[in-house]
């Protein structure tokens, strides 16, 4: 079973943070082992709820360099 994500870094607060973390759990439960579908699910939901321009990366090994709007970043780690 997927645990609630552990926050590594965030600038998000309140409802957006709570909603984002719940989306991560729902996506991980729905698409177990399929990182691409998990990422698409989260991105589409975030774009629909909070406007486009969200970027979602799912996986265990990746490098990433991004710029972001203030209060619009969430980096979490989920255990399965």
From TrEMBL:
Which cellular component, as a GO term, is one annotated location? Answer: dynein complex
InterPro entries from the UniProt entry: DLC_sf, Dynein_light_chain_typ-1/2
- Where does this polypeptide localize? Cytoplasm, Cytoskeleton, Cilium axoneme
**What's a GO biological-process term for it?**
microtubule-based process
SUPFAM superfamilies, from UniProt? Answer: DLC (SSF54648)
Keyword Transmembrane carried by entry:
no
State the UniProt keywords alphabetically. Cell projection, Cilium, Cytoplasm, Cytoskeleton, Dynein, Microtubule, Motor protein
Query: What does the record note on quaternary structure?
Result: Consists of at least two heavy chains and a number of intermediate and light chains.
Q: Which family does it belong to?
A: Belongs to the dynein light chain family.
Primary role: Force generating protein of respiratory cilia. Produces force towards the minus ends of microtubules. Dynein has ATPase activity.
What is the official name of this protein in its record? Dynein light chain
> Where does this protein come from, organism-wise?
Ornithodoros turicata
């Amino acid at each position: 079973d997927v645990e609630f994500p552990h926050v590594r870094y965030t600038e998000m607060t309140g409802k957006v943070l709570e909603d984002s973390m719940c989306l991560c759990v729902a996506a991980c439960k729905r698409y177990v082992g399929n990182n691409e579908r998990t990422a698409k699910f989260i991105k589409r939901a975030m774009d629909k709820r909070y406007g486009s321009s969200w970027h979602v990366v799912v996986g265990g090994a990746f490098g990433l360099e991004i710029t972001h709007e203030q209060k619009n970043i969430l980096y979490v780690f989920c255990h399965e």
